[in-house]
Design goal:
The protein is an alpha/beta fold. The protein has a single domain, classed as Spore Coat Polysaccharide Biosynthesis Protein SpsA, Chain A. The chain has 6 helices and 7 strands, in the order H-E-E-H-E-H-E-E-E-H-E-H-H. The strands form 2 sheets. Strands 3, 4, 5, 6 and 7 form a 5-stranded mixed beta sheet that branches. It has a two-stranded parallel sheet with strand order 1-2. Helix 2 packs antiparallel against helix 4. The longest helix is centred in the last third of the chain and has 18 residues, at 163-180.
Amino acid sequence: LSGQPLIQHVIDRVKHIAIELFIVCNNSSEFEFLDVNITNDSISGKGALGGLFTAMDISSNEYVAVVACDLPFVSTKILLYCLDLLIQSGADAAIPKTSDDYFEPLHAVYRREPCKKAIFQAIMQNKRRAISWLPQVNVIEINSDLWRDLDPSGLAFFNVNTMEDFMEAEKTIQKLFKQNNSV
């Protein structure tokens, strides 16, 4: 994407706010070219839920921001807002919602210990959905009225899954580059 691997865009956007930064994946050898710590899922074959568990398991911090590798416009403003809400409220998770019934669990912040336990229980119950464990913890839902102030365009949640998405992201990057470099 714009001459860089998609995941590099995510790393570049979040690295300045991260105390510790690592990638959780199925096959760490695919990402050895990146200048970050890489780890394989500690419970393989569980998809995003396994990745979430691994992130909670290996992090040394009380709070863990989780971001999908296909979100090139991830918003650090939203992540920091989520973190502030967790610290102030004592809740376990702060998760944006892009519609009434759609959470963005891979652009969110979690309190490590309670979330790790709930995710592990969901895995042991053979649940697969990345949000299947949320009823077990205290969640702050960040609706669009709240996050739109921080990301009016909604680009933070644009994920690249298809070639069409990739082309759209490429156009967006070029547009943003022109806006940032115009006098």
